[in-house]
Amino acid sequence: MCGIVGFSSIFDPELLRKMSDCLAYRGPDDSGEFIDSQRNVFLAMRRLSIIDPDNGKQPMSNEDETLWIVFNGEIFNYKKLKDILISKGHKFKTDHSDTEVLIHLYEEKGSDMLSELNGMFAFVIYDKKNKLFFGARDRMGIKPLYYSLKDSFFGFASESKALLFCPKITKKIDFQSLYDYMSLQYIPAPRTIFEDIKKLACASYFIFELDKNNLNISKYWDLPQSSNENMTMDQALALVRHETEAAVKRWSISDVPIACSLSGGLDSSSVTGILAKSGFGPLRTFSLGFKEKKDSSFDEREIAKNTASMWCAHHHETIIEPDDLLLDLRKMVYHLDEPYAGGLPSWYIYKSMKRKVKVAMTGTGGDELFGVYGYWRPYESFIWGLRERAKLFLLESQAGGYSGLKTKNKQGYLYHRYFTDSMKKNIVFNRERLKGVVPTEGYIQKIWQQSLSGSARDSVAYVHFKTQLPEEFLSMTDKFSMAHSIEARTPLLDHKLVEAVMSIPPGLRTSAGDPKYLFNLAMKDVLSIQVRKASKKGFVLPIGHWLRGPLSREAQHYLGEDYLKKQGIFNPNLYKYVVKPFFQGRSYLKNLVWTVYMFQLWHETYIENEPS
Question: Which of 43, 239, 243, 473 is deepest in the core (most CB within 10 A)?
């Protein structure tokens, strides 16, 4: 696992070091640089050594040094690929480095290599003969890759903060990104909050031709739709179990100790159980608990303890008060790079793992594979749809917007959002800011239509795999884990497992009453009764308490009418219709206020100050 950076067109070794140094926490074990002074090509990396710690130094080249690579991630089928490449005459100089496999696979297949890879990855290959950069990101978007093409300058990095050192790149805010953030609480690819920086979308690759200054981006994989309509329940259960076991086994390859992030929920408990039952050990588990509050039903500590005990795991438990999350809030904002207003607790899981292990297996992706939290219900049920429309109508009318009930973007309108397009148009932004902006509801609608499915369950899953999963959950997981020099692995997002699960008819894969019933049944022998019968839980941030309590003075400053006018980004009506009513007692507006507050913290960190 690494932090990678690189650029072309200018000769600046000091810039390379600055970009690499700012990502040192992503790879504290090793560092390396490559400079081609004839073509002004610069590559660097920071390495967290997981596979072949002694020989996997980067940047790495092929035999004649016509190819150089910087690679962030893990290729879990590298041994099989290496055997095939050796049989075709390729010579390897490392013992078992997956990085070197990528170089020789590119020699053999060019961009077609990507279909052969199983893993999580973001890498860039400098091809000296063909005078180009070839860069790619894994199918699910587990590992990030940012880039910028500004005039003749081309640069890339694992995090956008590294690109901010480049003199040609400005901090000008991309307004479309901000507009979408206000509805989604994250920014979907390929945009970032900065106009001059983009992120490569999941399952995509780029080719940048150095002499022509030409960038082409292509997609190499897409989420399949359900295809086997004649599948039986027994066949579905057998398929899920077999592919899940195979995925966990593949993703447990490591030359250093592995631990499990264990929440007590179905997904992480299944990963832990399969690892333990397969004989993997000694097993270490890490859980996060919250001191019980009278107004909180969230506490999976006992379930997690029982699961760890069931498999004789060495269990670690971190207990915090909900208010403790605020102690590291600005550190989180810094490491996230972009405005984000979603979940925060996993920061403390990785913080507790630091210096104890390097690799953490997680259950991320299980919800998206099996039922997507039931978000498809409003599209299948008249009652659920009516409830969602009524909720949106109430929110819009009381927050100074107007009803979008007649919107032409039916699916986009019903999809869960915070600020709706009508609210952003009427109270959040000034009209002149809206020129050229594409409505978020229309953006969601477009992705929905790309799914080409007649099933709302398939279409909602498709939207999540293209938006929230990579750009919120996986982005946050990568940034929070790497901030503590931990490699987070997501075996439930192994692409073979994903393809298998998505081939199951949606009516078998999930149900209205229990979205994850199929996964629960398939994993029953590795789960305790407590886990199998527990309802879906998740720690809900006490943002109402925070904003009216420990953050009250700061929030009222950053969200006050005078500050908003001086800042010039938002319409002061935002204070009148959202912020002021919230502080006067309208608690249902807390998510909207929190969304703006988290943007203001990001703005202070990255725009008003120099991040450090």
Answer: 43
The string of pLDDT tens digits covering residues 502-541 is: 999 999 999 888 889 999 999 999 998 888 887 776 667 8
Q: Which residue is it, tokens 């390379």?
A: 16
Alpha carbons 249 and 496: distance in angstroms, whole number: 13
> CA-to-CA distance for 63 and 269, rounded, in angstroms?
44
- What one-character DSSP code corresponds to residue 24? G
Separation of alpha carbons 193 and 200, rounded Å: 14
Query: What does CATH list as the number for 233-320+341-372+463-533?
Result: 3.40.50.620
DSSP letters spanning 212-238? TTEEEEEE---PPPP--TT--HHHHHH
Least confident of 24-33, 205-214, 405-414: 405-414
The CA distance from 478 to 358, in Å, is 13
Asked if 421 contacts 441 with a C-beta cutoff of 8 angstroms, the reply is yes
Considering only CA atoms, which of 13, 336, 399, 14 is closest in space to residue 186? 336
pLDDT digits (tens, 9 = 90+) for 119-133: 999 999 999 999 999
- pTM of the complete model: 0.94
Look at residues 15, 179, 22, 144 and name the one whose alpha carbon lies nearest to residue 72.
144
Alpha helices in 142-201 (DSSP H): 160-163, 175-184
Q: Is 2 a catalytic residue?
A: yes
End-to-end alpha carbon distance in the chain: 22
From 2, 166, 202, 260, active-site residue: 2
**pLDDT at position 102, please?**
97
- CATH of 2-219 given 3.40.30.10, 3.40.190.10, 3.60.20.10, 2.40.50.100: 3.60.20.10
Per-residue pLDDT reduced to its tens digit, 448-465? 999 877 789 999 999 999
C-alpha Rg value of the chain to the nearest Å: 24
CB of 370 closer than 8 Å to CB of 509? yes
242, 181 contact by CB (below 8 A):
no
pLDDT, average across residues 240-268 = 92
| Amino acid symbol at 411 | Q
Class of residue 1 by CB neighbours under 10 A (exposed 0-12, middle 13-18, buried 19+): buried
Model confidence at 404: pLDDT above 70:
no
Q: Tell me the domain boundaries of the chain.
A: 2-219, 233-320+341-372+463-533, 374-456, 543-608
Lay out the sheet containing 119-127: strands in order across: 60-61, 67-75, 119-127, 132-137, 204-209, 214-219
Task: Work out the percent of the chain whose per-residue pLDDT is above 70.
Answer: 96
